[in-house]
Amino acid sequence: MTNNEILRKIRYIYDFSDTKMIELFNLAEYEVDRSTVSDWLKKDDDPMYVELTDRELAIFLNGLIIENRGRREGPTPEPEDPLSNNMILKKMKIALNLQSDDILELFDSVDRKLSNHELSAFFRNSNHKSYRPLLDQYLRNFFTALQLKHKPN
User: Fold this and answer.
1) At residue 146, what are phi and psi to the nearest 5 degrees?
2) Cis peptide before 79 (omega within 30 of 0)
3) Average pLDDT score over the chain
């Protein structure tokens, strides 16, 4: 999945307006204007399409975390660059205050069976022997499940 696809999915699932998207970036101390957000949200074949970087997606996800969970003590966290699918899932888990059982239920709702052990491997440190990279298909299934949960029609 591309970063732009992820941004479009989150916007669609939660009905975020351009103003809300800008606010989420601002929460993570990143200034962005409406035209930039609009260019990120365009389809890949649009001539005005602009690719969203890993750093910018991490900033957006950090803003989503701050919006839903509140600001942590101390400075705003540095955005990750590069940003892996595992980090995206972890940030979504934090932002949405999901427990492992919630994530397993989401995957189950799209007929994607995962064990608790498989799920925990996605959240491990990348140097850990049981770490497992999260493939695009799992991330796509996660966002599809969120969409089914929040927009069942």
Assistant:
1) -60, -40
2) no
3) 96
- How many other C-beta atoms can be found within 10 angstroms of the C-beta atom of residue 97? 10
Q: Per-residue pLDDT tens for 114-148?
A: 999 999 999 999 999 999 999 999 999 999 999 99
Helix (H) or strand (E) holding 55: helix 54-69
Q: Is the dihedral of CA 83, 86, 89, 91 positive or negative?
A: negative
* Cβ partners under 8 Å of residue 43, min gap 6: 49
Taking the alpha carbons of 101, 25, 14, 12 in that order, is the dihedral positive or negative? Answer: negative
Residues 41 and 2: their CA atoms lie apart, in Å, by 11
Distance between CA 59 and CA 108 in Å, rounded? 29
Provide the 3-class DSSP secondary structure of residue 2: coil
Amino acid at position 120, single letter: S
